[in-house]
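Pilot study result, target chain (264 residues):
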Amino acid sequence: MHDKNNLELLTPNSTDFCMDDNECSYIPGKRVRMNYKQIDVVSQTFATAAVQRGWRRFGRNFIYPVCFGCIECKSLRIKVSDYKYSKSQRKTINKNEETHITIQEPSINKERVDLYNKYHRYKAKLDGWKHQDVSKEEYYENFVDGAHDFGKELLYFINGKLVCVDLIDILEDGVNSVYCYYDPDYPKLSLGMYSLLYEIKLAENLGLEWVYLGYWVEGCKAFEYKENFKPMEILEGYPRIFEKPIWKPWIPHAKYSHTPRDSR
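Predicted structure:
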């Protein structure tokens, strides 16, 4: 049973819609179809429940895939209390001793947008990502708007220069990784790796149990880095907001059966 206050938090007013099929960024030859729940006023309670059940937040939109005939996107999370840093991860932490980090509400300026576009041009050249420079308006809609009181940005500086932006949600039970981008001119610092290691430390300092990593797709190069973080759990199936989410220990390259997600 759910009390009235909790029901109201878990059922905010929203505009629900599906985006038409587009080419999948993760699996060649596949099409993607996304469900959107656009919410103007949302609580940390709803954000927590949604992320626990495999939703992703960008701006005011909570989204998840409802692709016909495909259930390859699976949600992962790191168990903070059991996490053991590897030797290479400790080296990455040590290499960033001079990296200064601040945390604040997400904001927008030319420096952020330029860094975002620089990172994506680099990934387009290195890994074949599709890229078109994002505008200030697009950046605001995706990463600033809808953050409310739980969305934050971690800013990483080297000698006063912004080199990495890590956008997160601080949930009731963990830290949700929203998006991270960094300056590719600092490859020795492994800033992408370091930002996730810092999320784990932040969750530990806040007494939170999980770091939610978003999706993982078997064989997708963009997600290979997630295999370096253990122990992790994988979400079973696609539960509705009032259904209990079942997370199980994740074994890389194991086969997981999932009930196809409908368009609810």
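One observation from the pilot: The chain has one domain: 4-249. A full batch analysis is planned for the follow-on phase.
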